[in-house]
Amino acid sequence: MTRAKALLDGLRLPVIAAPMFLVSGPALVIAASRAGVLGTFPALNQRSTEGFRDWLEEIEAGLSTGAAALPYGVNLIVHKTNPRVEADLRVCVEKRVPVIITSLGAVPDLVKAVHSYGGVVLHDVINMRHAAKAIEAGVDGLVLVSAGAGGHAGTNSPFAFVSEVRRIFPQGVIALAGAITTGRHVAAAIAAGADVAYMGTRFIATEEGAAPPAYKQMILDSRISDIVYTPAVSGVHGNFMRDSLVRAGLNPDGPAPEMNMDKKEAKAWRDIWSAGHGVGGIDAVMPTQALVAELGADFDCALGELQRWRAHAPAPAREKVA
Ligand SMILES: Cc1cc2nc3c(=O)[nH]c(=O)nc-3n(C[C@H](O)[C@H](O)[C@H](O)COP(=O)(O)O)c2cc1C
Fold it and tell me: What atom of ligand 1 comes closest to residue 23's alpha carbon?
């Protein structure tokens, strides 16, 4: 078994609580990893590399169990627009962060640096071209950001995407993302061929999520039809909640407005709230531990139902087919 698969095998539930700008910090990471899924956060949620190091120390302390520490992950944006990437990576190496999730650039040197201390690299992609490039760079796993995901979502069907990537990445870890909201969805992701479900939006509506209360309330009040896929906020297509676009003076039903928000992207994400298609299945803000327990119970129900179908399959007919 690869190191990446062994790490996931140690989870209570095959779920990664995905990194979310302005939402995931130490409280959510610690609560998620303690509950038995993999907690993660973007390094850029801290304003400086020094602050980032402080957060890692806080997380290490929160996850040390006396025996082996529980795993967690950090998201690094590997792009020339992120001047901190090298310094943040050095801190990750020093602190031996168990999982690094890279966005935008899949760089062999970074993979080498993370492997040097036994860490695992997952890279997030929205299409086959980027998946192939990341595999070539030597990543341990891919995050397939499919249609309906929160943040900068892709447009591929998760079913088709996971099958096509599995053909070119038979031994790698595949995390599937896009509106995964319930334990049944987690089971569906595994049944479809993924190793782990990657869930963002559902974890915004947790007590430990750092989003303001009005953001969490909008998640509860929104339905799939309230999610708008637009490049207006950051220049790259992403999913955002309609009411937050309207409040910012944008017309979600008109043509994508010409907005040069690149330099103000952090502010844009603060005022315009991202969420995926899964919002309609979210009815309560919960403590993360209770959420993971609920996901686990729902996951078990789904497995029970799949198992029932196995019993239904008439064995003689199967033999005939074979
Ligand atoms: C508010 C918000 C902020 C996000 N910020 C980041 C980020 O900083 N880095 C990143 O790699 N992905 C980011 N994402 C994407 C998530 O990591 C994940 O791919 C996505 O939420 C999964 O889809 P789901 O929200 O439908 O579960 C963000 C998503 C949301 C909703």
Answer: 1
pLDDT at 233 over 70: yes
Q: Would you say the CB of residue 209 lies under 6 angstroms from ligand 1?
A: no
pLDDT at 68: 79
pLDDT of residue 319: 52
Kindly report, residue by residue over 80-129, the tens digit of the pLDDT: 999 999 999 999 999 999 999 999 998 999 999 999 999 999 999 999 99
Is there an atom of ligand 1 within 6 Å of 20 CB? yes
**For residue 31, how far is its CA from the centre of ligand 1 (angstroms)?**
18
| Whole-number average pLDDT of the chain | 93
Whether the CB of 178 sits within 6 Å of ligand 1:
yes
**Sign (positive or negative) of CA dihedral 217, 221, 226, 229:** positive
Phi-psi domain of 96 (left: phi exceeds 0; alpha: psi -120 through 50; beta: other): left
- pLDDT, position 257: 55
Strand partners, 15: 197
How many Å lie between the centroid of ligand 1 and the Cα of residue 191?
A: 23
Residue 51, pLDDT > 80, answer yes
37 C-beta neighbours (distance < 10 Å), count: 26
Domains of the chain with CATH codes = 3-211+287-315 (3.20.20.70), 223-271 (no CATH)
Name the residue with the closest Cα to ligand 1, atom 5.
20
List the alpha helices (DSSP H) in the chain: 3-9, 26-35, 49-63, 85-95, 108-115, 128-137, 158-168, 183-191, 201-204, 213-221, 242-247, 265-271, 288-312, 315-321
Residue 254 — very low, low, confident or very high, per pLDDT cuts 50/70/90?
Answer: confident
Tokens of 316: 């003689």
Of the candidates 210, 200, 211, the residue with the CA atom closest to the CA atom of residue 282: 200
